[in-house]
Amino acid sequence: MNAPWLAGGDFDVSFDFRDAALTRSGDWGNHLGVYCVIGSGNYSLLRSDESQNGQNVRLSDPSWWRDGLRSTSATAGNLRMIRRGSQITTFLDGEIAYQGSCATGPMTCSIRIQNNGTPDAISATFDNFKLSATSLEPRWNCWDSFPTYVFAKGLDGAAADPLADPDGDGSPNLLEYGSGTNPASAASVPPALVQGTEDAGPDGRFLTFSTRLVKPVPADLDVRAEFSMDLSLGSWGAGNILGTDTDHGDHIDRMFRAPLPIGPLPAGFMRLKMTRQ
Ligand SMILES: [Ca+2]
User: Fold this and answer.
1) Which of 119, 118, 219, 212 is nearest to 171 (CA)?
2) Distance 161 CA to ligand 1 centre (A)
3) Helix and strand counts by DSSP (H, E) for the chain
4) Cα dist. 66→11, 30, 230, 240 in Å?
5) What is the span of the domain harbouring residue 172?
6) Cα separation of 146 and 218, whole Å?
7) Are 10 and 85 in a shared domain?
8) Per-residue pLDDT tens digits for 187-218
9) Neighbouring C-beta atoms of residue 232, cutoff 10 Å
10) Per-residue pLDDT tens over the stretch 218-251
11) In this predicted model, what pLDDT tens digit does every residue of 141-165 receive, in sequence order?
């Protein structure tokens, strides 16, 4: 579960949890918490079950795991994280758990309940979620990894393969992931590519096509176009193709422009390629 928002400036995020059942399997993988991500930096306030040091609420930041913050086996409580300027403060049930410096750029904030991938149980009820910030913008795409996305859509095993098409709509799961459609519903199909030409001035006109992408485009998905002059295997290349994004608020349109203008070549073809990184 992931409910992300992009928060700029100061922010304050909190939630109550109830009936938390976090079965420890030897690590911190089973947990619930508040996540704030800036670039590759990750601030998270986690409630888990006993760490090796007997603590089970802690803050991580880009440089260090702040272990030893609280030792509690409570199955209910309140987690809260506040940023004021470059200072971050975390609370458990109103008491300061950690205070220190942090990054000041826009952060993607989310609350999350996470299983470590082993077949054990984790559950909790979230309540009274509150988020305020100097500026807020929803992240329309709630999925930050392909495995999380297909799991949330109820797919497993071979049906969860990036190239599988379990709903039979002709679109493999990875394409549905990048397009923001449902891989488990034939009624939810990635929109067709939109072809066009662009007047580029003295160089002439270029073949282009546009595709609709989720916003933000997931970090584990590479989206590119390839060009070929004869459709033969091995002739496709991605060099010198211009990609331009247009932000539509809840999605992105990405237009790709062929590397050469229409005219000098006998033929030219383009295709969309999505790859899981
Ligand atoms: Ca499909």
Assistant:
1) 212
2) 11
3) 2, 16
4) 21, 18, 57, 46
5) 158-277
6) 8
7) yes
8) 889 988 888 888 777 888 899 999 999 988 98
9) 8
10) 889 999 999 999 988 889 999 999 999 998 877 8
11) 777 789 888 987 889 999 999 999 9
Residue 213: both structure tokens together: 């992408």
The CA 147 to ligand 1 mean position distance, Å, reads 15
Helix (H, G, I), strand (E, B) or coil at 111: strand
Task: Give the distance (Å) from ligand 1 centre to CA of residue 154.
Answer: 13
Q: How far is the CA of 230 from the centre of ligand 1 (A)?
A: 29
Does residue 153 belong to any structural domain of this protein?
no
**34, 45 contact by CB (below 8 A):** yes
Q: Is the pLDDT of residue 1 over 50?
A: no
Cα 114 to middle of ligand 1, angstroms: 26
Nearest to 131 by CA among 8, 46, 44, 31: 8
Ligand 1: distance of its center to the CA of 222 in Å?
19
Does 168 lie in the same domain as 87? no
Count CB neighbours of 112 within 10 A.
18
Which residue from 10, 54, 49, 44 is spatially nearest to 28, judged by alpha carbons? 49
Total structural domains in the chain?
2
Q: How many A from CA of 189 to the centre of ligand 1?
A: 7
Say yes or no: 106 and 169 in one domain: no
CA of 156 to the centre of ligand 1 (A): 14
How many Å lie between the centroid of ligand 1 and the Cα of residue 150? Answer: 11
Give the global pTM: 0.58
Token code pair at residue 5? 């928002």
Same-domain check for residues 43 and 106: yes
